Amino acid sequence: MSGHPGLTTHVLDTARGKPAAGVRVQLCRVTGDTRTPVTEAVTNSDGRTDAPLIERGSLKQGTYELTFHVADYFKGFVAAADPPFLDVVTLRFTVGDTSGHYHVPLVMTPWSYSTYRGS
Question: Which positions bind substrate?
Answer without folding.
Answer: 10, 48, 116
